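Q: A small favour: would you put together sequence and structure tokens for a protein?
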Amino acid sequence: MITTTWRLLPRDARDTLFLLAVIGWTILPHAWHLPPWCGALAAAILAWRARLAFSNGALPGRWSVAAILALATLLTLWSERTLLGKEAGVTMLVVLMALKTLELRARRDALVVFFLGFFLVLTNFLYSQSIAVAASMLVSVWGLLTALVLAHMPVGRPTLARAGGVAMRAALLGAPLMLVLFLLFPRMGPLWGIPQDGAGRTGLSGSMRLGGVAEIANDNSVALRVRFFGAVPPPSAMYFRGPVLSAFNGREWTRLVATVPAAQRPRAELELLGEPVRYEITMEPSRLPLLPMLEATPDLPGAAPRLEGWLLALRPDLQWQVDRPLTERVRIEAQAWPEHRHGPREPVAGLRDFSELPPGYNPRTLAWATALRQRPELESADAAALAAAVLGHIRRENYTYTLAPGGYGRDAIDEFWLDRRLGFCEHFASAFVVIMRALDVPARIVTGYQGTDPEPADGYWIVRQSNAHAWAEYWQAGRGWVRVDPTAAVAPERVQRGQSLSPERGLVAGAFSRVNPALAAHVRALLEQMDNRWNQWVLNYSRGQQFDLLKRLGVSAPSWQDLAVLLIGLLCAASLAAAGWAFWDRRRQDPWLRLQRQVQQRLARLGVTVAVHDPPRARAAQVRRTLGASAEALAATLDQLDRLRYARGAALLRPGRDWWRSFAAAAAALPATARAAAPLS
């Protein structure tokens, strides 16, 4: 029924509805990023234009369109507080695109819509550059090219399939040029400073409340990917160091604001032990100006991370600081020493900042720590013995490691440590640090990621947001800062095997996993492998890879000049080839035009005068008027040619040799009296 109705539509209505569908598909991804009124207004305008196409109604006047535009402008000012910037600009572009469909009165209006559509395709990449968005926008580009081809086929009723095929061939012809430009065009920063996928989504932040890391762990998206050049360290050594939090106000952990002069603060004093691990890390966008590098990545030549266009610095707490948030996906190579020591070996004044606790909070835990210290075996114990005693308490007292411990009140450490004993990693790390400080031992919280997926995908070990973790460090004389992970005391598999707790799955994903867990895991691995290759080969294609390509082509020391010379040379060669093809093609003619001229010449020999622009039907009528009933067979062949050219559903294909033989035979069969003026050769 729908197919029949579609075929019965006038061509103008069919082409308009197809164009509206393409525009709607292109606008759809914006619905999740723009104000709700923008999507609703665009949908209403497109529906209005579709109704006019079905009913062959008159398009609205310019004043109506201007009134809608004015309303959209006011709504944009109301929702975005400006008409400048990315969000406001894209909002107005979507509205203008929809409004322009109400002005499709001439071919030039259609061309404006097409090219607005191509620009609208680009704006979708302002929000995401994932492979899914790229695939959906390829559909939009194909649809717009198909509509453009239809606009250049004003005669007859070409099918969408034929126009789409022409558009596909044109795109494939341009693909080699696109590939050359992608490979060799100089890499530069994003034109608008656009964020990449997931900008601001990473859960690490500059502060931590109890329950915050558990919320991050419910996000199963990719945080970073790691590839090792050589032996892969065990999961228990895969600590990716993020924000170090040392100030506690009773509710929240934040970065420390030192109270002593810089000269008296603890320094890194990093001592590297054992063999280094060389690795490559691909980081997803984050909201923090830091790099969660593998512990410990030093600031040494050949080992320190390098990121062109960014300023990197290693803080005294071994956290890699960046000059601005990572709003784009980055790839870095570095070296780490899992075995290391850091921090001052002897007491310094600044260590007192790491023993401070807010007054009036968690009194029962502080009393518990005092009682622990008063045990005979611990009265003169060092920091290591006190830490071991606290961890032993966790092992003995049946604490539970869970993603859903519930909310805690004002004295959260008291409630967790002495009453409920339910918590995630930040509960155990916070309680450990509070108790160590109560025992007058400097301690601090370290957040980041720990562990990876059990198996690599496409050579990369995946670290997810669900691998977000919090651990602790305490200071010991003669050693410096010592890492301790209280979570390992209650859930050793979390640290030793890097197995994070699985967040609750959605309805569809959960049902799919229960029916066939192996297939679900395989599908997810396949999708992530595709996403990783897209990231590595397309989104992260860099200047270094361009120079590597030149080296493979035989350039020993590639530079920008070599890249420019190669690109210009290839473009010149392509231009010469295109010019040669155009020169050859100029001598060709449209098969229909050539046939029309041949028919005109044959009819002239029979004494039938027709104009160059006369269609076959008019020529058939002229044959009947000039030659009479004896030329009916000849006129019938011209009627057949007219149907091939203009009938509903005609494919606009070139007539075969059979038609020409029929036409020539009909002309030759005319009585001699009709052919006397100019006999056929």
Summary: The chain has 24 helices and 19 strands. The two ends are 53 Å apart (CA to CA). The longest strand covers residues 468-476.
